[in-house]
Amino acid sequence: MRLKALVILLLGITITNNVLAAEKPTASHKSVINYFMDSYMNSDYKKLKAVLSDDAVFTSNRDVRVIKHKASEVLAQMKKDEGVVQKDCNISSTIVSETDALVIARVDVNYELFDGAQQNFVIIEKNKEGEWKITQVYKVFVTSESQAKKLV
């Protein structure tokens, strides 16, 4: 009887550990990208915080200027906007480059009522603990007239 209880207990612990490990958002770069996209679409600062490095930097263009924000500033703004769902837009992602320690992804947001697009170049790095975390986000607003041109 004790052996049966011990086996059931060990089985329960093993199953619980596997389920918890599978749910960790930083276990793979793909889950980090999915959390990033979902946090954007639903203004969910908790999801973004789960996949951000403490020293992450957000860079964006405003006309001819470049603006930088710390992760804490972005999270504070998202907390104010919590629950605002993005409407009339589509979001998609593409892996630009991938190694065992670094991934560069492009997350595109296309608004139906805006002539242009928002491109987010998301830099994801594996830290010492083996977790994938976003360290940099470059948000670029591109209008149809100024689409990125290929270099020759």
Short description:
The protein is an alpha+beta fold and 152 residues long. The protein contains 4 helices and 6 strands; from the N terminus they run αααββαββββ. α2 (29-42) packs antiparallel against α3 (45-51) and α3 (45-51) runs antiparallel to α4.
Structure notes:
This protein is α+β, with helices and mostly antiparallel strands and 152 residues long. The protein has one domain: Nuclear Transport Factor 2, Chain: A. The protein contains four helices and six strands. It has a six-stranded mixed sheet with strand order 2-1-6-5-4-3. Helix 2 packs antiparallel against helix 3 and helix 3 runs antiparallel to helix 4. The N and C termini lie far apart (75 Å). The model has no long low-confidence stretch (mean pLDDT 83).
